[in-house]
Amino acid sequence: MKLSAAFVLVALLGLAQAVPVTVSEISEKSSQGLRLVQLAEDAQPVWKTEDEVLQFIREEVNFFDITDTWAQEQDLPQMKMAAIAYPTPSHQSAVSPLIVKLSTTNMSSWLSSLTAYNNRYYRASTGQAASVWIQNTLRSIATSAGRSDITITPFSHTFLQTSTIVRFPGAGSDNAITILGAHMDSINSSNPMNGRAPGADDNASGTVNLMDVFRVLAQGGFKPSSPLELHFYGGEEAGLLGSNDIAINYKSTGKAVKAVLNLDMSAYSRPGSTAVIGIMPDFTDASLSTFLTQVVTTYSKLPAVKNSPCGYACSDHASWYRQGFPASHSSEGQFPNGINGALHTISDTTSLSGFSVSHALEMSKVALGFAYELTV
């Protein structure tokens, strides 16, 4: 996301005034409606009102909201990412027949359903209804495919909207999880609770990428050697709430994670520009990003390009990186100039000039290849 220089200055002044947070004040201040946010890596978190947090969103200043997780994080050990040797993509003969089964028709239909909600805000009833719709749609696909081995589980938070975790169990001894993730919430930054926020690109597009990858793998009888999970996060727009909850849960319960691929906005190609897939260089694992670049080259018709840094807490991959897990993030174009500028407004619709389900299809190909190569 682009940062407003003036507002970043205000944010940094806030950091300069920050003092260490004590566990005893968490309950007191959160009960007053204050939110504990972190604006930079290794910076002390600061208390902000909900209006101040909303101003961060309007000014595109990235942050973690750690109100509900800060105390738990203090009890977790610092974990340095262990080096993982990722393979060179080599399963084209198996992946290519799956890729041709990906469907822009299904993606378009699901986009229509998701954007029909007034908004998918994490505290709104429509935001939770959208989450339930995703869960029910995935269950229907699994049932029709006869896949009782696949689990589809809501993950509850302190807010109304649930996240969703889909799991293909691993058949082998390797229990390290490969995760494909996308946030499913949306926001109208002018009126979060009641404003219209279709969120077609941000991030119904990444959501339907995962849904169609799930459909193809489930219907194709895919049974990985190591576990594969697809995550649909709630509350991303309000400070990476859903993914941060889940990443902390996985760390605290000792789950091993092989790789995370985050999909956030995949369906926009700026008119007049060359279509590409961007690879995010910051708050990501360098070796995994190299592997992701190879997957793009192998399975997509679009070239991979290295993005400019997107900054601290710019999307859900940062939650996993924060907890010491290897994470990667791909984008619909070269960041920042190739990214949809209508995010967080009523104009983020499928009719926006530059919106293309065919462009989004390329990200589905990448996600499917990424999952297959790391779990067979």
Structure, explained:
The chain has 376 residues and is of the alpha/beta class. The chain folds into two domains: 5-74, no CATH class; 92-375, Zn peptidases (Aminopeptidase, 3-Layer(aba) Sandwich). The chain has twelve helices and eleven strands. It has helices at residues 5-16, 23-31, 50-58, 70-74, 92-99, 104-116, 125-144, 200-219, 241-252, 286-299, 317-322, 357-375, and strands spanning 35-38, 46-48, 64-65, 151-155, 163-168, 177-183, 228-233, 257-263, 277-279, 304-306, 327-331. The protein has an eight-stranded mixed beta sheet with strand order 4-5-7-6-8-11-9-10, sandwiched between helices. Strands 2-1-3 form a three-stranded antiparallel beta sheet. A hairpin with a 7-residue loop joins strand 1 and strand 2 (46-48). The chain is globular, with a radius of gyration of 19 Å. It starts with a helix and ends with a helix. Residues 1-11 have low confidence and may be disordered. It is an enzyme of class 3 (hydrolase).
